Amino acid sequence: MDPRTVDVVVIGAGQAGLSVAYHLRRTGFAPGPGFVVLDADDGPGGAWRHRWPTLTVERVHGFHELPAMPFPAAGPHEQAARVVTDYFAAYEREFDLPVRRPVRVTAVHPLPDGRLDVQTDQGSWTARALVNATGTWTRPFWPHYPGRASFRGRQLHTADYRGPAEFAGKRVVVVGAGTSAVQLLGEVSTVAADATWVSRRPPDFRDGEFGPEQGRAAVALVEERVRTGRPPTSVVGVTGLPVTAEVRRLRERGVLNRLPMFDRITPDGVTWDDGRFVPADMILWCTGFRAALDHLAPLRLRAPGGGITLDGTRVVADERIHLVGYGPSASTIGANRAGRAAAREIRDLLARDAALD
Asked: Phi and psi for 170 in degrees, rounded to 5?
């Protein structure tokens, strides 16, 4: 059998991809002829291997262990990137998962015989079904604001952040209202000459307990969007920001004094229509990410609403395709559950197709 011909291709070896791979094995797919995992990175860890060094275990906004393997004991001040990357590497070894890397998928095309042609920078694979688990880290979102190209300082995104040292003595504007914005503002403000926080919407700080019922309600809101073909919001985006000890410390320091979003960027800073001006040497865009799905464009999966309509993880427009780590399964616990569901549906689909042949 051609080693490049498999039943299932999984794209991405982060939390979602490894969960799918585990459940495919459990469901009866053999590594190699049954399935392969193609990962664009040069080592394990998914997006976690790229997280900034100052993100420690205690500051991670929720992490759920992979199926059948407990998360290792780790000190609260250990680097999250190292701990999670080591965990993912051990997981791949423990369950002998067929991860091929670095392999970057460039396009997926339908073939006349009903299979899928998965094109990569390392050649092509042919598959009967595909699970996309590419996440969002490779697609940072940079919103457009007038004058952005004229700014003479430096502009970075969360994806570029490597610690506060490079902000020392600078006048910094931090943009965004999510967890990353709050965390990075807190770090930058300790070394910057001045740190100004702006966001389009007021931050949604959550004081009270956030239990399973609230979690299910948040996931349901995201699931409703993808079921109707609209682009998903993040699960974290609907849960709000927990008021942690760190947030309380930032409040006491007077760091969380947010301004509404500026109206334009000038060569030397940002300005508002009411005449307010804040000088800046650096702008840090903590404005989130979008799903990395460009390689699926040849399949024409998008709905008129701009998103991809899903039933669970299955793409309604093409039942061979599943998206895990997208929309309601973007959280770590959601990815685990979705991986199991996707594996079972693919098993049933391929069994049904084999019976019809």
From this structure: -100, 155
Q: Which residues contact 187 (CB under 8 A, 6 or more apart)?
A: 54, 163, 164
Higher pLDDT, 230 or 18: 18
Of 116, 38, 114, 40, the residue nearest 298 (C-alpha)? 116
**Closest residue by Cα to residue 313 from 346, 353, 350:** 346
The answer, yes or no, to whether residue 1 has pLDDT greater than 60, is: no
Residue 2, pLDDT score: 66
> How far is Cα 46 from Cα 185, in angstroms, rounded to an integer?
25
> How many C-beta atoms surround the C-beta of residue 162 within 10 A?
12
* 47 phi/psi in degrees, rounded to 5: -65, -25
CA–CA gap between residue 316 and residue 322 (Å, rounded): 9
Do the beta carbons of residue 127 and residue 66 sit within 8 Å?
Answer: no
Sheet holding 264-266, edge to edge: 264-266, 269-271, 277-279
Selection from 8, 2, 22, 54 nearest residue 349 by Cα: 8
As given in the structure block, the two tokens for residue 181 are: 């914005």
**Per-residue pLDDT, 213:** 58
Number of C-beta neighbours around residue 314 at 10 A: 19
Name the CA dihedral angle for 85, 89, 95, 98, rounded to a multiple of 10 degrees.
Answer: 110
Give 31's strand partners.
Answer: 35
Q: Which of 135, 140, 138 is nearest to 323 (CA)?
A: 135
HEC states along 70-91? CCCCCCCCCEHHHHHHHHHHHH
Extended beta strands in the chain, E state: 5-11, 35-38, 99-100, 105-110, 116-120, 123-132, 154-157, 171-175, 194-199, 205-206, 241-242, 258-260, 264-266, 269-271, 277-279, 282-285, 310-311, 314-315, 321-323
Contact assessment for residue 80 and residue 48, using Cβ atoms and an 8 Å cutoff: yes
Residues 239-286: pLDDT tens digits? Answer: 678 888 888 999 999 999 999 999 999 999 999 999 999 999 999 999
Q: How many CB atoms lie within 10 A of CB 146?
A: 12
Non-local CB neighbours of 7 within 8 Å, separated by 6+ positions:
29, 33, 34, 35, 127, 128, 129, 346, 350
